[in-house]
Amino acid sequence: MKRVWSWATAIAVAGLVLIVPARLSAQESARTRVISANPFGLLLELFNAEFEQKASGSTTAGVGGSLFTESGDHYVNADVFYRYYPSGTPMDGWAFGAKLGVTSVTEAGTYIGYGFDVNHSWLLGQEKRFYVGLGFGLKRLVGVGDNYGGLKYIPTFRIVNIGFAF
Questions:
Q1: Residue 163, CA atoms < 13 Å, CB-side half-sphere
Q2: Which of 105, 110, 111, 49 is nearest to 81 (CA)?
Q3: Which candidate among 40, 52, 58, 139 keeps its CA 20 to 30 Å from the CA of 157?
Q4: How do residues 109-132 score in pLDDT, each as one tens digit?
Q5: Can you point out the beta strands (E) in 42-124?
Q6: Vertex 110 angle, CA 106 and 111, to 5°
Q7: Do 101 and 15 contact (CB within 8 A), yes or no?
Q8: Dihedral pair phi/psi, residue 144, rounded to 5°
């Protein structure tokens, strides 16, 4: 467990470095950050949340995590991510990202993983403060072996995140 916490600490520090506010020119959008969560997760006993920060004119960086528990079993995931928005409008439109993080599953253990995701998000409302995001990804767990049924890849879903842009 000690090794897991050292990896988790490294990922948390990397996440903080990624979300340090970027210098923005006056011509760029005033919306540089989004915080969001999945409200439907309350019904499904699945929680996920993200913080995303504009890093450049077409990229963002952030941290996210999810938790699913049922009958004593758990799935816990924490990632740092970097997303590219081809349209040049971060946090609004299609995005393709890379992620690195820690995943823990009951009886399978805790593993470092890396992967990708594809997302679509919208900034809505007159002031573009209301955020809606959908996404799907795939994560490769490192060192899984025969644990977790030998499954080395796990899907990652955002289902629908709703949040606030500021």
A1: 23
A2: 49
A3: 58
A4: 899 999 999 999 999 999 999 999
A5: 46-54, 59-70, 73-84, 93-105, 109-124
A6: 135
A7: no
A8: -65, -45
pLDDT band at 13 (very low <50, low <70, confident <90, very high): low
- Return the structure tokens found at 69: 């528990």
**What's the rounded Cα separation, in Å, for the pair 158 and 4?**
24
What gap in Å lies between CA 11 and CA 95, rounded to an integer? Answer: 22
| φ, ψ (nearest 5 deg) of residue 152 | -100, -15
The residue ranges of every structural domain in the chain are: 1-19+51-126+153-166
CB atoms within 10 A of CB 64: 24
**Quick one: how far is CA 92 from the chain centroid?**
16
pLDDT tens-digit readout, 75-85: 899 999 999 99
Measuring CA to CA, which residue among 164, 6, 12 is closest to residue 100? 12
CA distance 114 to 112: 7
97-121 b/e (C-beta count within 10 Å ≥ 16 → b): bebbbbbbbeebebbbbebebebeb
